[in-house]
Structures
1.
Amino acid sequence: MALVLAGAAPLAAQTTPTLRQAAAARGIPIGAAASDGEYGPSNDWLANPQYASVLSTQYDMLEPDNAMKWDVTQPTIDTYNFVPGDTLVAFAQKYGMLVRGHNLCWYQQLPGWLVPSSGTGGYASTASEAQMSTLLQNHITAEVTHFAGQVFAWDVVNEAFSDSTPTTLRDSIWYNKPGIGASTGNGAATDTGYIEQAFRWAHAADPNALLFYNDYSIEGPGPKFTAVLNMVTDFVSRGVPINGVGFEMHLELGGYPSPAGLAQNMQQLAALGIQVHITEMDVRLQLSNGTATQAQLTQQVQIYQNIMTVCLQQPNCTAFQVWGVSYNDSWIPSAFPGYGAALPFDFNYQPTQAFTALLTALQTPESAPVLKTTGVVNSAGYQGGAVAPGEILAIFGVGYGYGPADPVNYQLDANGMFPTSLGGVQVFFDGVPAPLSYAQAGQVNAVVPFEVAGKQQTVIAYRYYYNGGPAPGPLPGLSINSNAVTMPVVAAVPAIFALNASGSGPGAIENWPDYSINSASNPVGANGYIQIFGTGGGTVVGGAADGALAPGAAWLSASPTWPTATIGGLPATVTYAGSAPGLVNGVLQVNLQIPQGLTPGPQPVVITIGSAQSQPGITVAVK
Ligand code: G3I
């Protein structure tokens, strides 16, 4: 029995969506800073069940508050401690969350052996520039290598620009006291030499991680943002590996960027191909008797709503994070005595008005469809960042407010082909309309045209016809277009469909030769064979027509890097890898023989094509 591969399960109707669900429908990760006792039991917030529940249900991203900073990760010059970071990574993986790394190079929270809390003495006080350079390189290399594949983005350098004279860098052991020998100190662009070097070391350690410069007071136009923009412009022009800028967004009622100013800053960075992450948002209120007035909360609501709205409107704003899970773990009261009530969840882990502000913004469509690269993911494994020829994608967010209210599943046309217009929706790759399998406001599943094969990148755009009609071309007033985004094209992004469309758990797998669906009650035996269904395998020998049903078995063109596979960590013989006869071109079928020696029960199955692995968490039932 061939498996019917529908779109990812649409969100069930919710009375009060979580921030995680609402943000997923807009194609943007939403996160919070998290602590797991990196400084001891007093801040082991992850051990609190209410904290853990809010973090894992309301957010799909987390960022260690302190666990990946120098004073935790390098307790002595010769030792590293990544245990607190590993614990947060494990928590994130358990709940399908992204992890943002923070931070690799900062002038604060340095270990006592390097800079004693007194500020004098320590290794930095006598080290040469060369010694400091080696120290920083070793630290960045060790930490980024350790978390490679687990941390999708890093704050490589944090808060390097001076507040008083923003065109220069603040004094620090990395810049000029003594520095790493990479800056001239003359205030010119070369002043950023140590920053550049830190980015280069981080990229060398994990070429797949997104690398960010992170700072505060750069969210609106001003001399500090201009200094950062000049640095980023210089870096981009010279090929320094930088992907984004973090806008910390530590705000108060008397200090926050205007929506127009924030949008302008984001657009100036977008012009350089640079992403923006809102990294540390909180809006502190000066409390009286420990509480905030409704007038204060109303202003705070407007600020939260404005910032989220601008982020949703700007295609290059690709992550939104708050700095803490609840009032309990917020840094604000200790840093700003008398202030608090800064976050979307209160002391009792209940949603605040700031929560409602964010949810309202997330549930309000923009004036036009906004396509974000973060919304373009593999429909089986939800991996993002790049696309492969024939990959069946799920594209979240762009259709929010601009798509069919009810789900529309494909119908083969008279020629037995998948449609390139569904429910009024079209998705273009370099102007080529893609076959569609599913469309609903907020999610569309599209098959990447095989024509992108061999290209370095592809330009993706979305169009919606209000009348739901066919697509003779853009019809002013009857159709509306999104912005276009450019994404890298790679040979393969292999992923295996989960039976419940969640991206994890029992895979879409048939036992061979009876084609029965593999399950705990229908396991496969040792030496038996299975057929696995996924997508992202790339091109097939002899080519494949976009949107057509595969007429027969066609091997992947992955030669000479033939697919390999493991089940339960043991090598499994690949007896076939290619198109799935009778299913749309783009569905990947891989046939495997079950290795001997496996423990009965659910066993993880992973397919590797070249350097690309299918997502973790898919299992096959073995008897
Ligand atoms: O409680 C422990 C104590 O037991 C331990 O002995 C001591 C060792 O230093 O640390 C104490 O913990 C404090 C920690 O917060 C836990 O709350 C640290 O003293 C204190 O330095 C630390 O402050 C952190 C602050 O950065 C340092 O500037 C905050 O947690 C953290 O939220 C804050 O985060 C920064 C971002 O990294 C960068 N952007 C600004 C943001 C706010 O400053």
2.
Amino acid sequence: MHALVDGVDILNFASNDYLGLAGDARLVEAAKEALDRQGSGAGASRLIIGNHREHVELERDVAAWVGVEAVQLFNSGYAANTGVLTALLREGDVVFSDELNHASIVDGCRLSRATIAVYKHRDLAGLEQLLKQHAGRRRIVVTETVFSMDGDIVDTASLAEISRRHGAHLIVDEAHAMGVMGPEGRGVESKADIVIGTFGKALGSFGAFAATTHAIADLLWNRARPLIFSTGLPPHVAAASRRAVQIARSSEGETRREKLRAVIARFRAAVPLAGGEASVPIASWLIGEDRQTAELGHRLFEAGFLVGAVRPPTVPPGTARLRISFSAAHTVEHVQQLVEVARRLVVR
Ligand code: PMP
């Protein structure tokens, strides 16, 4: 988990490469093999002539992994969220969105022209209240499962139950859970109508998907504008993602997840007050004051550690924090070093 920044070797605690696959030789090999066979570009939108074997094989493998009928690839998680939300929602519908949802979800809601009902972070009672208020309209609930800035998790079982009881569809974004959480790393395992995942984080590649039913996948293929009006993913990128999925599902994937859990546990033992769930590879170390947080991030960088120094407006005022993300490529010694140096700097 080293990174070269301006020629200086630093330990990287700021990337989303949770399984340490982004530099893996097998992903590189899979991409090279496809590059040699298919060339460097898809050639057009998949709906025109840009549909390649690598896309279809990847969709089939992800469907088997996540345990759904069908998967629709997208060129990124941003394109997946905006594409899915705009394909399914129209004026007059209501979309219920957690206040801390990712910008790609916020933008998808806005572009859809549906009425947007924002509920407080993970407040399922508040969500239910809003669902009742908007009874009689077509309704979709959308949330991340693992939240990217706080490292906390929504109660997906209750969320699915509430959505079903009120006749609303549920979309979950598992960007920070896919590859990391659940059996075979297939996510938080909610009973959602659509699960969004990205290949750009734990899977060390690029691109994204919506895992769902045949009927919804067909609808996305025909209506999702980022699919229709954009060149397909380069086939070699899909080939690398496919290799990453195979690794994530395998016993090696499980070994990597165990390593990751050990690294997270070491940090949480040393910094028990850090925010985020014990199983999530994101910890938020609250500092509070903006300038102090920026200064601390800078000093940590000078000491050889890259962490996110997150300040408003990304997070609410007064909650500036270090966002630290962990990887199976870290060792517990790396974590120990980070904690010791950070402590020394905070105290000063
Ligand atoms: N959803 C969430 C929750 C994310 O954190 C991100 C990436 N920051 C995305 C979607 C976008 O994914 P991608 O990087 O594949 O566009």
